[in-house]
Amino acid sequence: MTPATSRRRRLAASASIILCSFLATVIAIELGLRAFGDRDGDGLLAGYRLRPGHINLAHVEASLQRYLDHGDSAKLIYDEALGWRYRAHSVLMNGRFTTQTAGMRALQDYDTSLASDVLRIALIGDSFVADVDVSDEDSWGLQLERMLNESGLPAEVLNFGVEAFGMGQSYLRWQHNARAYSPDIVIFGVQSENLHRNVNLFRVLTNANTGIPLAKPRFILTDGELELINQPVVPPESLMNIYRDFENHPLAKYEFYYDRRRILDKWWSDSRLLVLLYDAWRQRAGEPEDFSRESERVILGIAIVDAMAADVAATGAHFLAVHLPKRSLLRSYHAGLQSPFHEFLQLIAERNYYRATETALGPELVEWHLWGETGHYGPALSSAVGAFVAQEIFECVRDGSCDFSRRQALLRSWR
């Protein structure tokens, strides 16, 4: 073998090693995005949407069939008013998560009649309210309950949080379930990242690999007033017929994520990595996701939360909205960086019912080991959130801003 031939073989072998290493890296990133890039079930990673490129009918049908085949044991079940909710009277998530009547997270059942000597608090929101990465005892709802009782203020906390809920679903959860329990305080856990859920009807269009292949209700604004559509919600058995001819379905015009600018329909659009790179390029090219105060998502979000606040106040209860940031937003907050949802947060901060929880979550809580396996709060963060909310309740009781007429004796005794 001549020296030149030997050199060419060495170069070819090196090139092969480099190519194989590159392909292995790409495959590892693709698999990582599929496994970990969708930490809250909505396909948003570092500000970029891991959207489905198209409606993959075979994939969606298989997902729906799995759901229907395991309907008797599914964690989340179809609900014609809400889209979905937790199965009632179940022990879920490997024994860590207990549900009771109305699918609320609780270790006991509650009567809708109100006890005279206990302050009743209802929590409304998504998976960060349900606190899905910690055990029942470590959830911030139960920690809040313990903190209030240990302070001498008898209280019970009813957790109506449901994972993957949008703001509109939370409002409906209040109307259809929580209101019947006549709470004294209603706490809405605001997830600014969930603004996109306000304009979504079919989850497969925001997350192709969702474990909740269901439809949801949504609000639209008609002459400045909230109007509810898709209720009763299309049942899962009817969804495939809709997807097969989606463009001609009456609901298609209300599905924000079935916009031809957002449906890629490319040969490569099933790759999570390529979709991520494509969306990153679009944002760099000046086509970022619109979360400005003029956007439909923000206008609708403010209208929904305002409507819930007014509805709660009409029952004589005190309404409190608290921002529950994800790790990326908490990290940005402590780094002094602007949130992509800053205009929504500015607008909602003008409401006297809003509190920003991140102001009480120190930079040490950004450490990844303090967060749960799906990117939700771990026990330390849940404890910090519970303490923050407890302090808000103490202050509003002391200063009289939530001085309930039916609770005069109870509140006087605590003060």
How helix-rich are the residues, as a percent range?
25-40%
Shape: globular
Number of helices: 12
Structural class: alpha/beta
Indicate the proportion of strand residues.
5-15%
Distance between the termini: 94 Å
Order of helices and strands: HEEHEEEEEHHEHEEEHHHEHHEHH
What is the overall pLDDT average? 87
Q: Give unreliable regions as ranges.
A: none
Largest sheet: 5 strands, parallel
The total of beta strands comes to 13
Strand order of the largest sheet: 8-7-9-12-13
Radius of gyration: 24 Å
Furnish the topology, listing elements before pairings.
Layout lengths: L2 H34 L7 E2 L2 E2 L7 H13 L6 E4 L3 E4 L4 E2 L4 E2 L20 E6 L2 H4 L9 H11 L4 E5 L7 H10 L8 E6 L27 E5 L2 E5 L9 H6 L27 H13 L11 H19 L3 E6 L3 H8 L7 H8 L4 E3 L22 H21 L8 H7 L1
Parallel strand pairs: 7-8, 7-9, 9-12, 12-13
Antiparallel strand pairs: 1-2, 3-4, 5-6, 10-11
Please tell me about this protein's structure.
The protein is of the alpha/beta class. The protein is 37% helix and 13% strand. The chain has helices at 3-36, 57-69, 127-130, 140-150, 167-176, 239-244, 272-284, 296-314, 327-334, 342-349, 379-399, 408-414; strands spanning 44-45, 48-49, 76-79, 83-86, 91-92, 97-98, 119-124, 155-159, 185-190, 218-222, 225-229, 318-323, 354-356. The strands form five sheets. The chain has a five-stranded parallel β-sheet, sandwiched between helices. A two-stranded antiparallel sheet has the order 1-2. A two-stranded antiparallel ribbon has the order 3-4. A hairpin with a 2-residue loop joins strand 1 (44-45) and strand 2 (48-49). Helix 4 (140-150) crosses helix 11 and helix 5 (167-176) runs parallel beside helix 8 (296-314). The longest helix has 34 residues, at 3-36. The radius of gyration is 24 Å and the shape is globular. The model has no long low-confidence stretch (mean pLDDT 87).
